[in-house]
Amino acid sequence: DSGVTQTPKHLITATGQRVTLRCSPRSGDLSVYWYQQSLDQGLQFLIQYYNGEERAKGNILERFSAQQFPDLHSELNLSSLELGDSALYFCASSVVAGAQETQYFGPGTRLLVL
Amino acid sequence: AQTVTQSQPEMSVQEAETVTLSCTYDTSENNYYLFWYKQPPSRQMILVIRQEAYKQQNATENRFSVNFQKAAKSFSLKISDSQLGDTAMYFCAFLPGSNYKLTFGKGTLLTVNP
Question: Along chain A (114 residues), what's the average pLDDT of each consecutive run of 10 residues?
């Protein structure tokens, strides 16, 4: 158990809908990262937050957005969902935001868009 | 942009034997970090081992060790005394010192046979 929690574990929804994925980092970690794992794209970095502020963006679609709250938990919002958004979404956390910090992953949220 | 290549999509090994998984990467950066993550059937991403590029000594964690060849941009993982619980997808990952974007290879599916 990495100490990173994600809810829900599974999510089934329809195209065009909007969902919110939640992540709580390890105690003491200030930085949160979101990743998408799909069969065709593999594991891709989406976005990073540090102490409430966006720090880095990867291959995140405009239909997706994220935020980190004062209690350091983070939410990833996915809207206008398409079939291709079906994937495993991981949250990871690290103590600070430096590249030397190891990222610890949560168990993931499996999203299925029908 | 950095790329990470894992040339072995699948490998198998007998229990108690040793196996080596290959990883090469491409970067123009001098300061970076390399990781091996393990993803068992539960889909949890588990950190196996980490290597800092500035360290010449190869990292070791119990039965897991790496062979880091900086000039060749190679970072292989050796698993000694393989156990059934080592059956998993193994991902090599690269983190540049200049940003926080972890780049993953496509993974190697390792099966440990009894």
Answer: 93 97 95 92 92 91 96 97 97 77 91 97
